[in-house]
Amino acid sequence: ADDGEKFGLWPKTHQWVYGEGWLDKFFSMLEQSSDWLRTMTFQAYVQDTTASGQVFLPSGSYDEMLQWSGGHFRNFFAKYPEAHAMQQKMLRVSATVKALKAHRVTGRGARSKIHDSRQVSRTKLLAEAERALYAGQCNCAYWHGVFGGLYLAHLRRGVYTNLIAADTLAHRAVGVLPKALTVLDADGDGQEAISLRTPSMEVVVDPAKGGAITEWTLVEPRINLLDVVSRHPESYHQVLAAHSPESVASVSQPPASIHDVLGMKDEQLTQHLRYDSHHRSAFLDYALERLPTLEEVVHSTWKVKPGWSGGTYRWDRQGSAASRKGPVGVTMVRELATGRIRKQVVLSRDRLECQYELEGLEIPVVGMEFNLSLRDPRLLT
């Protein structure tokens, strides 16, 4: 009775359980054995039975989960930068909601009358922010297995939508505007990143990752435009490569576990397996030997000029600016053997710009990679 899934939801179990009569036969056997077999619910058993001893369970999960993750659930965050980014976003928003809730209790709002309608409204907003935070902690989008998980865009979208809502509602509840420029460790790697904010947008710039933008949030639509998943190798891809058409199981046999069922809608599927060597974000720059073809870009087989393939930028604090009323920007510099690159990301109320300058460098082609998680326009209203 695993989550009720074996009673019709898993492939072929509906025919087996109901069409072939397994469930009716099972209950008939229970009735026939009632002279010696007693049935009870889990709740009744726990209430009527004392513990038989102690047991200490190690952290772990079922075999298939451990195979997908590589031995431990938290490995999903190492395997998938996209899952790690969501988790780190969730932790930041959680800390923000907690801090703003404490500010609400100890700050100016605490001196308001308890029956003040504004205070009631603020309390309601904080409660909504907490609920949105908890919804953003739903685990389904943070890992991947046979059921889709991280690769399902609507699951990731649901996480980001609720986390953005929690952050927005918490700030609105206490009447505090987010800072225009904040230094933070966005992905827990010990390196400084910079958050740039306006009332309508937030971007996270990571100098340690090629000066890329790793998150681009639209506040009102509550979406992350950089919610993109790279193409990762999976354990079941090896199975697909060795796949041969399976024979149809006899109806007299129990249906196989969903973990053991392998189907291919396209017999040429293995020819489409391509993998990315990096996390797909925005404003990633490359020095190229020549202009790549579209096929090379799609297959990630274009050539990068030796000596310049990603890298760390230095944040130029003096060249950066922060203002609540005007544009906010961050300037980064990368020193190379024969020259340097200067990159500036500027965020205004309704515009995101990247100004890019090369000094003393002879480069045949400069490529700028920019990924977007495109949505149906109806979802942006």
**Widest sheet, order of strands:** 1-2-3-4-5
Mean pLDDT level:
85
Q: How many β-strand runs?
A: 12
Shape estimate: globular
Low-confidence stretches: 109-114, 244-252
SSE pattern: HHHHHHHHEEEEEHEHEEEEEE
Helix count equals 10
Model description:
- The protein is of the alpha+beta class.
- The chain has helices spanning 13-19, 22-32, 42-48, 63-69, 75-79, 81-106, 117-135, 153-174, 235-241, 294-299; strands at 181-184, 193-197, 201-206, 212-218, 223-224, 282-288, 304-309, 314-321, 328-335, 340-347, 352-359, 365-370.
- A five-stranded antiparallel beta sheet has the order 1-2-3-4-5. Strands 8-9-10-11 form a four-stranded antiparallel beta sheet, with no helix packed on it.
- Strand 2 and strand 3 (201-206) form a beta hairpin.
- Helix 6 packs parallel to helix 8 and helix 7 packs antiparallel against helix 8.
- It starts with 12 loop residues before the first helix and ends in an 11-residue tail after the last strand.
- The model is unreliable at 109-114 and 244-252 (pLDDT under 50).
Brief description of this entry?
By secondary structure, the protein is α+β, with helices and mostly antiparallel strands. It has 10 helices and 12 strands. Strand 8 and strand 9 form a beta hairpin.
Give the helix/strand layout:
Blueprint: H1 13-19, H2 22-32, H3 42-48, H4 63-69, H5 75-79, H6 81-106, H7 117-135, H8 153-174, E1 181-184, E2 193-197, E3 201-206, E4 212-218, E5 223-224, H9 235-241, E6 282-288, H10 294-299, E7 304-309, E8 314-321, E9 328-335, E10 340-347, E11 352-359, E12 365-370
Antiparallel strand pairs: 1-2, 2-3, 3-4, 4-5, 6-7, 6-12, 8-9, 9-10, 10-11
Helix pairs in contact: 6-7, 6-8, 7-8
